[in-house]
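This entry is listed below:
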Amino acid sequence: MYLISYIYYKGTWATPFDAMLTKEDIFNVDDNNKVAVQMMNMEDTFDSYYDQAINTSVLHLPFNSTYSMLLMLPDDMATLESTICPRHITKWLKWMRQRRYDVFIPKFSIKTSYTLNDVLISMGMTDMFSDLADLSGISEGHKLAVSDVVHQATLDVDEAGATAAAATGIGITLMSFQSIPVLKFNRPFMVTIVERITENILFLGKIINPKI
């Protein structure tokens, strides 16, 4: 028997990307590995924030709803991963300011699956995996216990929006031939989908290689 919790979200950008501007570009997976990606591009006014405490650039992309995607481009991924918490979301949404950028974001599709047994046990939920399990509320006459808790999540991002089912250097640079700063997500970054009113997080993940 499987007990499944399923969340599906499909969001359309408030301002879609122009597919005619999507070009092949290079994404720096790490110092030694690069992959070719389809890089979306848009020059517009965006809400953004640079968190100096964790050296991370944050870009806000709203959907045609109360949901938004936040893209986080850190100088060091390990620092962001070990530090990020709901308080950061609250701070970023509060202190973001509008500025015109030339933004580049790769199209990507990610899918992951992992078991939560060890996580739940470490939180104290041990009985449901043992003979002490009491699942009588969903079973009559049968002794049941939970064998595995599996979580799977997918996220697809393209010019129209996002569908979710639950090289190194400075991210913002000023190009010498133009006055508009460039924010280019061409190295590992994190992404979250949040509901702006409640600030609840629907999805949180990281993009190490957009081709995988």
Summary: The mean pLDDT is 80. The chain has three helices and 13 strands. Helices lie at 77-83, 86-95, 117-122.
